Amino acid sequence: MNYSLHSSLLDLSNPFLGSLLCTNLKLPFFNRFRRVGYTNNNQNVHESYATRRKLVVSSQLMPGQLEGSLIWRKQLDDPRRKQEYVRTLLIDNYDSYTYNIYQELAVVNGVPPVVVRNDEWTWEDVRHYLYEEKAFDNVVISPGPGSPACPADIGICLQLLLECWDIPILGVCLGHQALGYVHGARVVHAAEAVHGRLSVIEHNGSRLFQNIPCGINSEFKVVRYHSLILEAGSLPKELIPIAWTSYSGTHSYMENLKSGLISHAYESQTDSSLSFSHSLTDTSNGISSWPSNFSELTQRNNVLMGVMHTTRPHYGLQFHPESIATCYGRQIFKNFKDLTEDYWQKFGSTFIHERISQYPACMQVPSASQLVGIPGSGPFGIDDAKPLRLATRPGKLLGSLDQSNSHKMCTIMSSSESSTSVKNLKLKWRKLDRLAAKVGGARNIFCELFGTGTAENTFWLDSSSVEKGRARFSFMGGKGGPLWEQMTFRLSEESNVASRCRGHLSVVDARGSKRSMFLENGFFHFLNQKLASFRYNEEDFEELPFEFYGGYIGFLGYGLKVECGKSYNRHKSRPPDACFFFVDNFLVIDHCYDDVYIMTVNEGSAAITPWLDETAEKLLRLEHSALQKLDDHVSQSTTFAPGKEGFYAEKSKEQYIKDVHKCLEYIKDGESYELCLTTQLRKIVGEIDSLGLYLHLRNKNPASYAAWLNFSNENLCICCSSPERFLRLDRNNVLEAKPIKGTIARGTTQEEDKQLKLQLQYSEKDQAENLMIVDLLRNDLGSVCEPGSVHVPCLMDVESYATVHTMVSTIQGKKQSNVSAVECVRAAFPGGSMTGAPKLRSMELLDSLESCSRGIYSGSIGYFSYNQTFDLNIVIRTVIIHEGEASIGAGGAIVSLSNPEDEYNEMLLKARAPAKAVIEFQ
């Protein structure tokens, strides 16, 4: 075969021909790609985050510089033995699935890997830790957006693959493409973009696939997230194909579930009785051989799914072994571990056993790797990483953070910065058995006790839909006792990277006194300090069945993504970016038993207020007729269209559809797997009865995570009927997320409703949407949870609500003990169901497409209890009333299977319930 020079997908010259063991081959300087949102400094728009990332690959990158001297292995006489653990350097290509790989490797290797983003370390750093410190036994290169031909997408990975020819390396998806690209293969568009869908994989029985069945009818199905591939016909002689797709096409998750082929990602994925020890050419027992020539491959419509180098311990996988729906994913990582052990042992060396004492000591602590890449670790867990910092060369791990990780440095907390005084809190409570039903339920209680006048400065976390155990408790109250205060935060107008975490905070206390401050380190940092300042006795609440005992209730706006290491905000929010009450007097309603709890929090030895007694008396005086029923004048109209009823949309139908097409182009080019495109609908409402509107909305569209918030000082009311939980942390340190992806309208008849529910359940597009977000949330939880603890007890259940059916999954994990509540939120905020995946790149693209700020929409409403439990929703199906205007955000996930017209109709469906509530109420 003639291996001639090929141009890559992006029309860059690819110089990697022949063997790369030579020492005279040089890489050209890669042209920087102009990405979406990028302009020069003379234009009044932003430069994309991707183009500002420092470029590691340059004209100075040269293979072979270390030659044979790189193998600095001491030839000792210790007997060979298997490793207790294998130490992995995990390179993160700014992906949203990296920490799924992290969790798998932590379980398989016996020690968590160290995660480093692809532009965090220089080649000097890599060389130092691999060859001088001997800190790692192998390297895994993560998936990621974009192409290996773009330096901003791939960072240090190309040089790693070139120079580290004596280190075992496994590349996944983008890492797989980088392995091919660096050796001369072409990266091209696949015939079809495949995201969140499954394919049958055949392999040639190589060691990477040991103990994994093979064949067209085998149970080896894998999840694919990619639109680019290595062109099989361009593979150089240095790379051997080891896996490819069957010609049977793609499959949905439900197809595999029906056939019993899906196994849990954190359960054993192999049968110990299986034994496949065939050679590369063995075709017996279902082991397939690669098509005899690439022409045959093309004719059979196979897609290259795995490669290995002929002389180096380098492997690549196009599919995602870490996905929840991939079969035998853990076995692949186990095989890579075994390959690593065998590779080092064959040299007759005990290098892999030469442990510099500080490395195994620090690496067995999950927080150690937080210093070099775990999202959310920078601000609060930095002291826990001190052993690793002291064990390294001065300035090498932290020295580059000022430039490449300024988003982390801007939130680092030190004790000297904190001026928050310690508060010793005491909780008192009283339970009124089965009272709620006797007085007309939660609505009557709220309206009678807190809803008088305009219900100023009141809150109601309202579980108005409690069927099937979706929610159990509601929390309500108003301006309370001496500890009550309101915090309002607005991000700074400055837009440069160094200042994007900063903002203005105003605090109004119970006496009406107001103070303002400028937060250099952002709102999450401040909130974390406040929660850390509380002292309490767990005996005060150990008998209570719920998780909120007093603390902060309010919202986090979508714009706070800039404090979570994400892309900066192109648009400024008109409402505040965060607003919270500190709640000291409140009620809790247990909808399961109709019990009512009266709660009050005081500081230290302060005298107990009479609030408990007074509130109990008010509740006992209530009767069913205490509140006159609201006259819900209901329109008979069943349709809704923006513009016809006073609502106007930020984007026309034509523009929205045009933006869906743009999203599909980004997905086709590998920039994203899924993009949650949204828009805003607005209507001038003037002096509207906001509480009456909320009561009408909850009556028409009850929801498990509904909420009413009235920040009267900000002229802001929030009427929320969200069915989606973002994230919860209970007092057992269990984190739970419940993302929704996939929505369809209810039917007008029972039979039609049943058919629509089945249509949603078996929709390949909706299953793909949901699966991608489940894997994303597993990643977010995996960065702060104990290794091996993240699991999915419920995958793609269809739940029914008043107006829609939705597809819901549940992800849980055990929080690491050294991670704070706020740190957990920062690791996952904003909710992946409202961004897409990979999250960072997707938000960058969405910022360039959306014409206004999302504001509170797509953020979260809920509580942070003073004992650091929390429960937050996703702000959807919500009417925001701010300064006389009602706004509703709506949108949907765009995937490769999306139809633009259908996406526009889905956006209208999601806006319909809150918009109709406003129209009917007026």
Automatic annotation (TrEMBL):
<protein>
    <recommendedName>
        <fullName>aminodeoxychorismate synthase</fullName>
        <ecNumber>2.6.1.85</ecNumber>
    </recommendedName>
</protein>
<dbReference type="InterPro" id="IPR029062">
    <property type="entry name" value="Class_I_gatase-like"/>
</dbReference>
<dbReference type="InterPro" id="IPR017926">
    <property type="entry name" value="GATASE"/>
</dbReference>
<keyword id="KW-0150">Chloroplast</keyword>
<dbReference type="InterPro" id="IPR019999">
    <property type="entry name" value="Anth_synth_I-like"/>
</dbReference>
<dbReference type="GO" id="GO:0046656">
    <property type="term" value="P:folic acid biosynthetic process"/>
</dbReference>
<feature type="domain" description="Glutamine amidotransferase">
    <location>
        <begin position="267"/>
        <end position="336"/>
    </location>
</feature>
<dbReference type="GO" id="GO:0009507">
    <property type="term" value="C:chloroplast"/>
</dbReference>
<comment type="pathway">
    <text>Cofactor biosynthesis; tetrahydrofolate biosynthesis; 4-aminobenzoate from chorismate: step 1/2.</text>
</comment>
<dbReference type="GO" id="GO:0000162">
    <property type="term" value="P:L-tryptophan biosynthetic process"/>
</dbReference>
<keyword id="KW-0809">Transit peptide</keyword>
<dbReference type="Pfam" id="PF00425">
    <property type="entry name" value="Chorismate_bind"/>
</dbReference>
<dbReference type="InterPro" id="IPR006221">
    <property type="entry name" value="TrpG/PapA_dom"/>
</dbReference>
<feature type="domain" description="Anthranilate synthase component I N-terminal">
    <location>
        <begin position="456"/>
        <end position="598"/>
    </location>
</feature>
<keyword id="KW-0808">Transferase</keyword>
<dbReference type="Pfam" id="PF00117">
    <property type="entry name" value="GATase"/>
</dbReference>
<keyword id="KW-0315">Glutamine amidotransferase</keyword>
<comment type="function">
    <text>Bifunctional enzyme that catalyzes the biosynthesis of 4-amino-4-deoxychorismate (ADC) from chorismate and glutamine. In the first step, a glutamine amidotransferase generates ammonia that is channelled between the binding sites of glutamine and chorismate and used along with chorismate in the second step, catalyzed by aminodeoxychorismate synthase, to produce ADC. Required for the synthesis of 4-aminobenzoate (PABA), an important component in tetrahydrofolate biosynthesis. Does not possess ADC lyase activity.</text>
</comment>
<feature type="domain" description="Glutamine amidotransferase">
    <location>
        <begin position="89"/>
        <end position="257"/>
    </location>
</feature>
<dbReference type="InterPro" id="IPR005801">
    <property type="entry name" value="ADC_synthase"/>
</dbReference>
<keyword id="KW-0289">Folate biosynthesis</keyword>
<dbReference type="InterPro" id="IPR006805">
    <property type="entry name" value="Anth_synth_I_N"/>
</dbReference>
<dbReference type="InterPro" id="IPR015890">
    <property type="entry name" value="Chorismate_C"/>
</dbReference>
<keyword id="KW-0934">Plastid</keyword>
<dbReference type="GO" id="GO:0008153">
    <property type="term" value="P:4-aminobenzoate biosynthetic process"/>
</dbReference>
<keyword id="KW-0511">Multifunctional enzyme</keyword>
<feature type="domain" description="Chorismate-utilising enzyme C-terminal">
    <location>
        <begin position="653"/>
        <end position="910"/>
    </location>
</feature>
<dbReference type="GO" id="GO:0046820">
    <property type="term" value="F:4-amino-4-deoxychorismate synthase activity"/>
</dbReference>
<dbReference type="Pfam" id="PF04715">
    <property type="entry name" value="Anth_synt_I_N"/>
</dbReference>
<comment type="similarity">
    <text>In the C-terminal section; belongs to the anthranilate synthase component I family.</text>
</comment>
